[in-house]
Amino acid sequence: MIPNPYRSLHCNAITAAHVGQLVTLSGWVHSARDHGGVIFVDLRDREGLTQVVFRPEENAEVAARSQELRDEDVLQITGRVERRLTGTENPKLATGEVEVVVTELLVLNRAEVLPFQLDRELSNEDLRMKYRYLDLRRERMSRNIRQRHRITNAARNFLDEQGFVEVETPVLSNPTPEGARDFLVPARLSPGKFFALPQAPQQYKQLLMVAGLERYFQIARCFRDEDLRADRQPEFTQIDIEASFVTQPDILNLVEGLLAAMFKAGRGVDIPTPFLRMTYQEAMDRFGSDKPDTRYGLEITDMADVFAQSGFKIFRSTLEGGGVVRAINAKGFAGITTGQMIRLNDIAIQAGMKVKQLAFIKVERDAQGNLEYKSPLWKFFEPSEREALIAKLNVEENDLVFFYAGSWQEACDILGRVRCEIAQMQALTEGSTALNFLWVVDFPLLAYSPEEQSWVAVHHPFTRPKAEDLPLLEAGEYGKVRAEAYDVVLNGYELGGGSIRIHESDLQARMFSVLGISPEEQQVKFSHILEAFRFGAPPHGGLALGLDRIAMLVAGEQSIREVIAFPKNNKACDLMTDSPTTVDFRQLRELYVQSTYKEKRREEAASAETAVNPPADS
Known about the structure:
This protein is of the alpha+beta class and 618 residues long. Helix content is 31%, strand content 23%. It has an 8-stranded mixed beta sheet with strand order 6-9-10-22-21-20-17-11, with helices on both faces. The protein has a 5-stranded mixed β-barrel with strand order 1-2-3-5-4.
């Protein structure tokens, strides 16, 4: 190893075995303390802390200069390792038995007063983003970034061992039908034309299978111009995988081994395999979500058998009209507060509930000690219905039962959201270390979009229909066709998804036609892949895992911004570099692009003025 002129050891490497040795360290002043002229400094580098001591009797000049040190000054020190005095050891530090008595000091750089203290958590996220390079010095953030490196390295090593080849695909390409808005890049050499940044390398990786590569992977940068949330960024990273001559079980088994290797490297835990496998229909029926959190109960229960002949008209008419009546028993939650009830109703309305309040039954004891079922509904139920309800939902004292009557999709959306909110209110996962992995399989291939008045792909248009459902596709019963698609889920988060792909040109063209893409449009947008499939494309399939989201869960964080070195804020802006920004008109002219922003703002202002002051003849 080439000697390092700045250090002989890292700050976390000094132990009692080094007592009496002369060492050189470099790092930042984590904290400094003056004990009657003797200055104690915790010196920090990437690996950890060492206490260094400046004593006037060792070197008066060095000790005097140490009194001018401030937090985050960058130092190089040389000194002798000594044991700490008995009773002053720090068992929380790896170096807590020893200290370095400094004989030489070199200040490599001074630090101005910091905008925030690094040893305290900061709630102002915009301030953290503006000074991200300081935020990353904090132990928690440094740990997260290095943990991400370990799981990424584990993924590369695992896939390499399985015979996969890492291939980079283009960043500048055509728009792809991935369901989100593309970022567009003007092409100066082709005036009036644009590249799109990839939402995913979907078509390229399928073309690599046509090319005979057989096993491909990539740590791929992807871009989507969409609204942000805690686990979403405009630019993100996924572990992209594709393989030829594989079946769905092959992919599932491969990914289980990959995730086990990543969590072992990042968290040091052994993940049991195989994962639970659940159909889309079962996941929606039981949990109201295609990414269910199974760490707690609160399962949705079908109440059709209880109320099929009910005298309560709302429930009976809903069932007779093809709808559903579903319920959730929030056990022990009868003490819900007014604020919590308002919150649940708001959640249900946001999810599509058309009435103002969720139907409920609250079970408590009255003054005489008898169980009382508090609900506007209870009086409409027959005694037999009450008994069946209590038995089916295991209703007991202090339980709170919520109902919804409507379409199947409405019940899933509303009660699924309510279920998650109740779990948060009851802190059902607080302190939990459970890692409940599962697969959701047999997704619908297509869904009807009322907004677009057409069928859309649930995953993407290259997903293969299940062989037994191909007659339904040909018969035009698109809503009944299932896909060879699968998502891997952990504790309510989708970690990734994939499918077995279409590899026949005629079937792919048929799929495009179902999605309303005309033969002419197919030739413009997809001629390359349709043509490639006519030259002997092998059966193939794959999956993409969200690396940012996996890193977030490995690190125990609540937002992917905590595991990305330089993320965007919740408005998709980089406050540190002040981007996005305006550009000089000459740059736009070179790109043959005309800005319409000011014109649009003028039109909006004119429309607002007209609304306030309408013309006299209106």
